[in-house]
């Protein structure tokens, strides 16, 4: 339901100073004529539940949740969407007036919208390589399989973690898994980097070979953290490459729609972020 009343919203994380969510949500609010107060809250690593509770009691109506609290947010939700239950991670909470919390995960929908609507990629029938098996990979895997690819292969530094994830999602589509050192024969149509290696300025240790030649390469990270992978993709002869700015804005638009009943326009906001990350 649309709600024109002003309300308090926030993103919780640790660290959080880098977050673009306050800027994005204020832009969405201005665009749709809503009165929204949206702040970034640094929660102590062992104090997310208490910080969320205090925000809710003080009149908070909704929260975004980022690293490292998405799994804890899933446990703290009284009720969850099917996609959040599958991901076992929540990035969006509706904080209800009766004190209960509804959890959703908009990461997968945000990625899918960026890939298919903004970048014009056809995922049905494609061969997809997903690097990483952490929270982001878990959040996007269900929606990726729903798009009907020929196969999704998950490759992770810790191979066992990739296998466990593939086993869990096997009923939803053709999914296989292994270590980074044992990639199946390419080529792939789409290579997604869902590792956090770029945060430390590095690449995941990828085996040599031109298995990504001709692929569309996409890093879920954005800004400087995506640079090592995007440079590597170019050197591999990738068809094209993108960072995760579009995913960031699209997952935020999904959250905004859940809270306010209207989905904002994203194109100009993605372009503005790409022109230069603005001050929050
Ligand atoms: P996470 O749960 O901490 O998982 C990290 C993953 O990266 C694991 O698979 C880990 O492998 C792997 N990894 C870390 N360092 C590595 C290295 N040096 N070499 C190879 N693999 C490495 O993090 P996450 O929540 O999944 O986030 C992953 C990335 O997605 C981050 O860059 C995050 O910013 C991005 N993200 C973007 C959006 C967006 O809206 N654009 C949304 C969500 C996440 P092991 O299992 O072996 O440890």
Give short descriptive properties of this protein.
Rossmann fold; alpha/beta; binds NADP nicotinamide-adenine-dinucleotide phosphate; 6-stranded mixed sheet
Describe the protein's architecture and organization:
With 280 residues, this protein is α/β, with parallel strands linked by helices. It folds into 2 domains: 7-105 and 249-274, Rossmann fold, CATH 3.40.50.10860; 108-243, NAD(P)-binding Rossmann-like Domain (Rossmann fold, 3-Layer(aba) Sandwich). Helices cover 38% and strands 20% of the residues. The protein has helices spanning 21-32, 48-57, 70-76, 82-87, 107-118, 135-146, 159-169, 227-236, 245-260, 267-275, and strands at residues 7-13, 36-42, 60-65, 79-80, 92-95, 101-104, 127-131, 151-156, 175-179, 190-193, 216-219, 240-242. The strands form 2 sheets. The chain has a 6-stranded mixed β-sheet with strand order 2-1-3-5-6-4, sandwiched between helices. Strands 9-8-7-10-11-12 form a 6-stranded parallel β-sheet, sandwiched between helices. Strand 5 (92-95) and strand 6 (101-104) form a beta hairpin. Helix 5 packs across helix 6 (135-146). 45% of the residues are buried. The mean pLDDT is 94. It binds NADP nicotinamide-adenine-dinucleotide phosphate. NADP nicotinamide-adenine-dinucleotide phosphate is lined by residues 67, 107, 110, 132-137, 156-158, 161, 194-197, 199, 202, 204, 220-222, 225, 244, 247-248, 251. NADP nicotinamide-adenine-dinucleotide phosphate (NAP) binds at residues 67, 107, 110, 132-137, 156-158, 161, 194-197, 199, 202, 204, 220-222, 225, 244, 247-248, 251.
């Amino acid at each position: 339901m649309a709600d024109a009343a002003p309300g308090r919203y926030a993103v919780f994380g640790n660290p959080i100073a880098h977050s673009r969510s306050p800027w994005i949500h204020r832009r969405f609010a201005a665009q749709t004529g809503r009165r929204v107060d949206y702040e970034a809250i640094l929660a102590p690593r062992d104090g997310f539940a208490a910080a969320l509770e205090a925000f809710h009691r003080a009149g908070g109506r909704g929260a975004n949740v980022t690293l490292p609290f998405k799994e804890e947010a899933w446990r703290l939700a009284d009720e969850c969407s099917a996609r959040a239950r599958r991901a076992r991670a929540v990035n969006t909470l509706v904080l209800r007036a009766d004190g209960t919390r509804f959890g959703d995960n908009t990461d997968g929908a945000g990625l899918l919208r960026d890939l298919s609507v903004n970048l014009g990629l056809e995922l049905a029938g494609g061969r997809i390589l997903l690097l990483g098996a952490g929270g982001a990979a878990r959040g996007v895997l269900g929606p990726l399989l729903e798009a009907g690819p020929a196969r999704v292969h998950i490759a992770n530094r810790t191979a066992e973690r990739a296998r466990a994830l593939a086993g869990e999602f096997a009923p939803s589509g053709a999914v296989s898994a292994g270590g980074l050192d044992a990639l199946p024969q390419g080529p792939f149509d789409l290579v997604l980097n869902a590792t956090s290696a770029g945060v430390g300025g590095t690449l995941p240790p990828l085996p040599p070979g031109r298995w990504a030649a001709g692929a569309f390469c996409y890093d879920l990270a954005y800004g400087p953290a995506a640079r090592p992978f995007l440079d590597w993709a170019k050197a591999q002869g990738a068809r094209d490459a993108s960072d995760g700015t579009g995913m960031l804005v699209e997952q935020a638009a999904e959250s905004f729609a859940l809270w306010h009943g209207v989905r904002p326009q994203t194109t100009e906001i993605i372009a503005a972020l790409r022109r230069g990350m603005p001050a929050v």
